[in-house]
Amino acid sequence: MASFPQQSTRKNIRNSPRSPASSTATSMKKSGKKGGQQLRSQTLQEAKRKGRMDRSHGEEDVILKLQQMNLNGDSLTTETGLVYDERMTEFFCIWDKSFPECPERVTYVMEKIRQYGLLERCVQVQARAATEDELLLVHSQEYMELMKSTQYMSEPELKSLADTYDSIFLHPKFYECACLAVGSVLQLVDKVVSAEIQNGLAVVRPPGHHAYWEKMNGYSMFNNLAIAANYAKQNHGVERILIVDWDVHHGQSLQYIFEDDSSILYFSIHRYEHGEFWPHLPESDSQAVGIGRGEGYNINIPWNKIGMGDADYITAFLQVLMPVAYEFRPQLVLVAAGYDSAVGDIKGEMQASPSCFAILTHLLMSLAGGKVILSLEGGYNLQALAEGVSASLKILLGDPCPRLAVPFTPCQSALESICATIMAHRPYWKGLQNFSADKPVELEDGEAASAITKKEFAEVLQESVAEVFRKLPSERTALVYDERMKEHYNMWDSQHPELPQRISCIYAQHESQQLTEHCLRIPVRSATEEELQMCHSLKYIQTIKSTVDMKARDLHRQSDEYISIYLSPKTYDCALLATGSTFNVVEAILTGKAQNGVAIVRPPGHHAEKNMACGFCFFNTVALSARYAQKLMGYKMKVMILDWDIHHGNGTQHIFEDDPSVLYVSLHRYDHGLFFPSSEDANYDMVGRGEGEGFNINIPWSNGRMGNPEYISAFLRVVMPVAYEFGPELVLVSAGFDAAQGDPLGGYTVTPEAYAHMTHMLSSLAGGKVIVVLEGGYNLTSISESMSMCTWTLLGGTPPDLGRMKTPHLSAMQSISNVIGVHRKYWSSLRLQVTEPVAEDTSIQGVTPAQKTSPSPEVKSAEGKHRSSSELHMSPCTLSLPASPEQTIKQTDGSLTFHDLSGSSEQVVDDDSFHQMNLTPKSVMPTELQTSEQISGDKEISDKIIASSVQIYVDQEHLQKSTVVQEPTEGIRATVELAKSLDNHKPAGQVTARMQSVGQRTEEQVPTDQLPVGQGSVEQIPGSQENVEQVTAHTVSVERLSAEVESITISELKSKEAKAREVSPNQSKTTPFCMSESLSSVPVGGARQKVKSNASVSKESRIKAKEENEILPVAETEDKAVVSNPVFQEKTHQECNVNSAVSDPQEELLGEATGWSNVLRSVPFCQLFGNDVSLESGTLYAVTPLPWCPHLETVHPVPSSGLNVLQTCSDCGTERENWVCLVCYQVYCGRYVNEHMLMHGLSTGHLLVLSYTDLSVWCYGCESYVHNKVLFEVQNTAHRLKYGEHMAGFN
User: Fold this and answer.
1) Number of Cβ atoms within 10 Å of the Cβ of 74
2) Residue 36 class from Cβ within 10 Å (0-12 exposed, 13-18 middle, 19+ buried)?
3) 452 Cα distance to chain centroid
4) What CA–CA distance (Å, rounded) separates 2 from 81?
5) What contacts 24+ positions apart, CB below 8 Å, involve 65-68?
6) SS3 state of residue 1268
7) CA separation (Å) from 670 to 650, 810, 815?
8) Which residue among 425, 746, 963, 1032 sits deepest, i.e. has the most Cβ atoms within 10 Å of its Cβ?
């Protein structure tokens, strides 16, 4: 791919896929440092020393992995191959000179490619004819011989044979040209797979995607891409191939050929019109998902109306194809590139512009390491065809994407088709299961969801072509960096996270990977005071300026006025340099000197408010750059700010919250408002105000360590759809890399590869005008590799494979759904109305819903056999995932059956598939959240518990071959009894009782008074002696269940916190400040503690205060005793007092001067970060166990028989990493072996488990380690058996 056409002599740059985790990483994950140690008081120096040790040790794994990444080298080919042979123009329709499939199609395309100067930029690949053996990879011997004989037929014979097929003409040269077309595509396959070229375009005819294995169809003789796919598998060992078909006609033959093949994922987006459009097949509908092993690997998006445009096609890619493709992980992408869906094509009648095809090509280039081959199929408006092909070729060559025309509004019919496809494929793909059942949007008066704007063909084409082929800058990427920005440093603490070395390490990495050689170096400058006033008050600017002449003590006192800030004599100068240098990059981009840019600057800026420094930030660099861009252009140009720093950019949000010219999107750790900056302004419901309403989008993460799956899902479902609809003219990225794996403050696991993919997606916006500006990130290795990956991508590099991604975290799915629910009224691209599947009668034993469909006409298959559409695409699936989380589980004949409690479906899943499902324990209701005394009289909480009673039953004998359903666990029994006792709150009405017996199931409405109190549904399972009572007063999804249970638990914790904060009359106000408000609010290197917002301040008050530019009270003052947890307070309060009493006054003063709060004297260093590091990352900077969790009351005493710390897994017998359940005391292996303990917790609701490896305790419900005195007995028993002595300090 000719990424650097202007500087071809420069060295190529390369990235190799990351290697698997090493044995070192594995041993670290299984080491004893999981945070199960007793908490103890520490001095400030001890905390710092421990922090340095933890930081160094934790980086080993990340360094070991990242050092194996190599972005430089000479082996990467970045060239694009183009194959064409004039001999393919020698055949035509003898008896109809006006036949649409004519030689002019390819000659016009090649003429346009030459006109735009694209041909000389390509590697011209020699065409060849396919051999007979290659043709036999798909077609039959008899058929091939018949086609070969057409070379010698007369015109009447040719016409007579052609008439036996559908939409076919024949010519004596047809066979020869068809062989050339196939062979040309195979030439590209050889060169792309062997890395001689990066990607390729085959300008060939005749088309091929309609050709059956034994007959011609739809202008096609041989199936070019089907042969290419089988050829790649047979000759090159390619295991997974994605075929994308955007031709306006459904490639039904491609579908038939691969419908039972799980190694080929076929995606087609085509005109259908409920079967009225050619080829008039029911298999062209969304319900055709493949058969046998290929079930789920055939994806159709059928357009049921004409006029589909850019927004419709791109939305289909973002919402369906890309999530599935990331999960499928193709090694090669083949595109059936038909341009009869282009605007102006008389056969397609669609409105896809050349810009649209450019964007679609760009999206596909993020897959398979950029190994993408486009093969020409249809397209019958010569001008639209040529422009569309040229636009795709420019992207293959590495040119930036064009801007899309506005408005970008997917039509209602397109959204309905996309939703139908999502529903059909939810059982098969994890990436499609995080769609909630949305309610239709009530549109404002005058708004028509299905309106399709129609422009004259010439006008649309002219506008798109002008944008696609606009003049490009002479340089690709501008870069700014200056060593002087390192002069801002913490004078008293060399280990402060915001180190000067952050930028020097990043720049050194760029140099070592030879990235700087390909960049245009931009000179630095300082911003002026006048420029700073675009976002900051003059008084605040002068205050920071005054620090230049301050002494050290005065600097500390001034920094103490802000939150998490340190000051030095050079702070002001460095902040001016960071801002002014970024201005220069903006100017270089907007004046056409470079296409995109990178700013390696510090200090960061996105926390800085109009009149206040905050969170290591002084001047809001990115916000000022947006205003500078608008000032430079002379109008309020549309700017998008994407903030992927793990901390919410509170300053940026507040500056632009009433401005519709700036779209601010932030993905950040939130933890229900407990993570810095600890403000409710970071929640999803803060959408902006006034004219800016809807232009502020927060995607807050809570309850989990997020990584690649969550960030990619958020980009595909929210960020990119809204961004395309907004249509920015410039994209600024607040690129904090503290969400990267190994970061000590973030605790998330985003990889450098994921940052490359996010950058790649953003590069399709604003005509490629994207500027990446450094914000946070505190692991020097991670930030260096991550930002280098962003620069590599901006330079035109292909994003590397992300590896196998897990299902996005349940709470992340809920957060994304919350964001969509709030913003869909502002953005039409978010209005997918995905509904739950309609309940079906699945009473026939052994038949899944996929097998039971409404009768359909018989159709003829590719093999010529007559079979119904249900036989074509509705065979049993052995790899299907549950269509809905509301399910019970039972086992029949060795396979698991998921039974939907809502009565919608029943699906069979084999054991291997079940292990890969990554079902989260949050689908099981935590037991006994509150006692009846706690919630007595509280109707709201009781109703929540009743509504959240969802049980998952599995046979207690570890899924043996049986149909007996396990009875509810003790915790569930308690919930049922509680629900019964509170059932008097339920109004009289109807509830559903379901009765199931062999061969039948019925649903009937039974009056409430005729059922036992609290009963919602009853099932009779063959082999069971009695019915199992289940409370299903409300059937809810896992997302809703988690949210409701979480809200109950959080409210209880907040209640306890509130009581703990009350200061008794006898308590002195000078009580030492020994605990932070929450573990997530402990300061990290700032002059003040990180604080959370005052819950008493209402949303309306915050908005009013912002309008008046006021700062609301956000925290308790330091003279108050703030306690995060009563249990922890009881253990540490006395120690805190003792520590404070004996502390050295000089050391105390030094502690203030370092910028670290006194709270560190009593809190272990691991609590500074307020998080656990993900097990997947293998890094152990700090692990903070919960001092209390709501599931502790489920712990049972140690059995009289005692423990056996050498016991093997009860399921698989492994001796590796076994855990014991603290409820039933059964032993199973952990998640890094065979996940049997995870399955046990899922099936029984037993959430607390103890590791026999290091004696730590994990809670599946809270997703955290737990350290509480309730656990000491069992931990000590295991310790005594394992080491022959009691735990240290055990009483």
Assistant:
1) 9
2) buried
3) 30
4) 10
5) 65/18, 65/19, 65/21, 65/22, 65/25, 66/752, 66/781, 66/782, 66/785, 68/16, 68/18, 68/19
6) coil
7) 12, 15, 10
8) 746
Which ranges constitute the DSSP H helices of 591-727?
621-633, 650-656, 708-714, 720-726
Of 1041, 1062, 817, nearest in space to 945 by CA = 1041
Catalytic annotation, residues: 210, 607
Q: Map residue 1269 onto helix, strand or coil.
A: helix
Q: Which helix (H) or strand (E) holds 388?
A: helix 382-396
Residue matched to tokens 């009937």: 1004
Which stretches in the chain have pLDDT values below 70?
1-77, 434-455, 835-1183, 1290-1291
CA distances (Å), 200 to each of 180, 760, 900, 1221, in order?
Answer: 16, 19, 46, 56
Joined together, the tokens standing for residue 35 give 């945070």
Q: Are the C-beta atoms of 332 and 249 separated by less than 8 Å? A: no
Distance CA 915, CA 879 (A): 11
| Alpha-carbon 323 to chain mean position | 8
Note whether 1123 and 1058 are within 8 A (CB): no
> What is the rounded CA–CA span in Å between residue 782 and residue 646?
14
CA atoms of 460 and 573, how far apart (whole Å)? 50
User: What's the start-to-end Cα distance of the chain, in Å?
Assistant: 68
Q: What is the pLDDT of residues 38-50, one digit of tens each?
A: 323 333 344 334 4
On the CB side of 442, CA atoms within 13 Å amount to 0
Q: Where are the alpha helices (DSSP H) in 194-251?
A: 224-236
Bridge pairing between strands 475-480 and 696-701: unpaired
Cβ(1183)–Cβ(1173) below 8 Å: yes
Give the up-direction half-sphere exposure of residue 1232: CA atoms within 13 A in the CB hemisphere.
19
Could you identify the residue written with the tokens 């957060």? 815
Write down the residue that tokens 């070395």 correspond to. Answer: 501
Kind of pairing between the strands at 264-271 and 241-245: parallel
d(CA 56, CA 1084): 17
Quickly tell me which residue has 């996940």 as its tokens. Answer: 1235
DSSP string across 1154-1214 = TT--GGGGTS-GGGSS-SBPPGGG---S-B--BS--TTGGGPPPPPTT---TTPPPTTT--
Widest distance between CA atoms in the chain: 111
One-letter amino acid of 447: E
Structure tokens at 899: 């039974």
Q: Are 934 and 1048 in contact (CB under 8 A)?
A: no
- Coil, strand or helix at 1072: coil
- Strand residue runs (E) in 862-951: 866-868, 887-892, 895-900, 906-909
Q: What is the dihedral of CA 1095, 1099, 1103, 1108, to 10 degrees?
A: -40
Query: How far, in Å, CA of 593 to CA of 590, rounded?
Result: 8
pTM above 0.85, yes or no: no
CB atoms within 10 A of CB 38: 12
Q: Give pLDDT, residue 631.
A: 97
Report which of 718, 952, 733 is spatially closest to residue 824, judged by C-alpha positions: 718
Tokens of residue 60, six digits: 């080993």
